[in-house]
Structure formats: structure tokens, C-alpha cells
UniProtKB/TrEMBL annotation:
It comes from the Bacteria. It comes from Sorangium cellulosum (Polyangium cellulosum). This is Uncharacterized protein.
Length: 250
């Protein structure tokens, strides 16, 4: 879940069921998972106010938070802890505020950003990457391997195929990287860029083998390009986890 405060130019990204959070792209940790969970639950009901009873019911369905007889004291304690964690992380702005006699809601100036559907993030792009890798493997199996004087082995790739593959991966990569252009995703964007750069060396057939048989070269190529796709997908799955919104029970 992402919250932003345009007036203060701040961004807060939270992860459901985790202590990790980001302020303007920098990673921090709550002392308790309840601290982040409370903020997410309150924000999920925005612009409505989350009553103390609703907050307590949300927590009690998953976490041991004590008796309903002490729900007000319990929730205020969690709110105080969350505020202290954010303050230690450098966020002095109040994110949620108390509505006397009613509960809590997002503080003035904060808004909940539209969620990207994490469960479908880059499905089309991943399918294109897998298809491109399959075509590269089939092409490698159909072309001769050449050896130079240094006993280095290369694929005898045709220029037009190399250019087509380069353009295709460039197009996929641009769509992925540009769509994640927000501060909270900077580390993940850089990771995906690195993985795509490695993949690019395979789709343009720059792989080099040394003192190796043609059969072993092709086998290594298949294994290594598949690993490249897995690495890109792993980075995307990590982002999907961060995009999973916190939802109220029921």
C-alpha cells in the first residue's frame, strides 16, 4: 500500500503482514507488525473513519491483542508505537489522526494511491520474455558454433536475428522499467534493469565458451538464459508482494 502527502512531498509504502516500510524510497522497519498493519487498515477505509471496535476486530482475527475490555488502551498504544517508529525513520508528519469518540482516519493532506494489481503485474511482459527465450534456444540449436584462435566458442548468429531480438527485449524492458517510475521502487527498478542487461547479452548471442564442446555450449546456453528469466520474474514477484493491499476482514 502506498500513501502520499503532496503538501509535504512525502511517500510512505507499507507491506501487508510485514515490519518493512519505505519513506521516500528508503527502507525502515517497524518494531511491531501491528504498527504497520494499523496504518494500512485505517488507510484502507479512507475516507471513512476506522472505529476502535473495527480496528480491534481486524487485529484480533489474526494477532493476539488482548481483551475487548481494554481495546481502547490497546489501540492507542499501537498508534503511539507506530508514530514513534515513523518519527525515528524521519517522518515527523502525522499519518493518521484520532477522531475523538469515533476512532482513527488518515491525517489531513494524506491520500491512498491507486493500487497496481500486483497479482497481474507484467504477466504479458513475462510471457513475451519466455517466448523470446524459447525462440533464442531454438535458434541456437539450429546454428553452428564457431571457434576462434583463442579457443573461444561463439554462436554464428545472423545480424538480422540479433537486431530483431535486441529491439524486442528493448521494447519489453522499457515498458517494465518506465511503468515502475516511483521512488519506492527505485532499488527494485535497478535490480530488474541489471537482470535485463544480463538477459540482453543472451538474446544477442554474446555468450562465449572456452575449451568446450558444442553440445555443452548449447546446454549451458539453455540453462543460463532460463536462469535469467527466473531472476527477472523473482524481482517482479518481490514487487507484487509489496503491492498486495491490506484488506479489512470479511
Amino acid at each position: 500500500m502506498e500513501l502520499s502527502c503532496p503538501d509535504g512531498a512525502r511517500q510512505l509504502r507499507l507491506v501487508a503482514g510485514d515490519v518493512v516500510f519505505w519513506i521516500d524510497g528508503l527502507e525502515h522497519r517497524f518494531k511491531s507488525v501491528l504498527h504497520g498493519e494499523l496504518i494500512q487498515f485505517v488507510a484502507s477505509l479512507h475516507p471513512e473513519t476506522a472505529s476502535l471496535e473495527a480496528i480491534f476486530a481486524h487485529f484480533r482475527a489474526v494477532y493476539p491483542v488482548g481483551s475487548p475490555a481494554s481495546l481502547e488502551r490497546t489501540i492507542h498504544k499501537i498508534v503511539h508505537g507506530a508514530r514513534q517508529d515513523l518519527l525515528r525513520a524521519g517522518l515527523a508528519l502525522q499519518v493518521i489522526r484520532n477522531v475523538r469518540g469515533l476512532g482513527y482516519r488518515l491525517a489531513e493532506g494524506w491520500r491512498k494511491e491507486d493500487e497496481i494489481d500486483g497479482g497481474r503485474l507484467f504477466c504479458a511482459e513475462l510471457e513475451e520474455l519466455r517466448g523470446l527465450a524459447d525462440r533464442c534456444i531454438a535458434y541456437v540449436d539450429s546454428r553452428p558454433i564457431i571457434e576462434n584462435a583463442a579457443e573461444l566458442f561463439y554462436l554464428d548468429a545472423e545480424r538480422h536475428v540479433v537486431q530483431q531480438n535486441f529491439s524486442h527485449l528493448y521494447s519489453i524492458g522499457c515498458r517494465m522499467l518506465l511503468s515502475l517510475a516511483e521512488p519506492a521502487f527505485v532499488p527494485d527498478i535497478l535490480d530488474i534493469k541489471r537482470e535485463l542487461s544480463v538477459l540482453m547479452s543472451y538474446v544477442v548471442f554474446w555468450r562465449v565458451g572456452h575449451r568446450i564442446t558444442e553440445e555443452a555450449w548449447r546446454l549451458d546456453y539453455r540453462r543460463e538464459i532460463a536462469k535469467c528469466i527466473e531472476d527477472v520474474e523473482m524481482r517482479i514477484r518481490k514487487i507484487e508482494r509489496f503491492l498486495t493491499p491490506s484488506r479489512p476482514p470479511g
